[in-house]
Specification:
Arc Repressor Mutant, subunit A, two-stranded antiparallel ribbon, mainly alpha
Length: 114
């Protein structure tokens, strides 16, 4: 089954949590481009794992090749992809909710000690 016959979550779940790990890395560092080898090294993923998920990320348009340096191809997050834009917004909003939850928990803990 390919991406066009599945929902996005079904596709990602089938590919593995490692795909989400790669996407998260690109979302955290959206202004840079990276080789497959760099991504694998930074995320402690094998070359085989990177190869398995890479074509899926390119196929759905989440990452794109930006340039070549020597024999290495570099890739970046495709920030023009509407799904990527939504994921970045969602990541930002969830992060803000987490920060607020931590602040609230700290405030409660402080008030219990006074």
């Amino acid at each position: 089954m390919n991406f066009n016959e599945q929902t996005f979550l079904q596709f990602v779940a089938e590919q593995s949590p490692k795909m989400l790990k790669v996407l998260d890395f690109f979302i955290m560092y959206p202004n840079y481009d990276y080789s497959k080898a760099t991504i694998g090294r930074e995320l402690k993923l094998s070359k085989m794992t990177i190869e398995k998920i890479w074509n899926g990320l390119v196929q759905i348009g989440f990452i794109k090749q930006t340039r070549e340096v020597g024999r290495s191809k570099l890739y970046s997050l495709n920030r023009k992809n509407p799904m990527v834009i939504l994921m970045m917004k969602m990541d930002f909003e969830i992060s803000n909710l987490q920060i607020e939850a931590i602040k609230n928990a700290e405030a409660i803990a402080i008030s219990k000690h006074h």
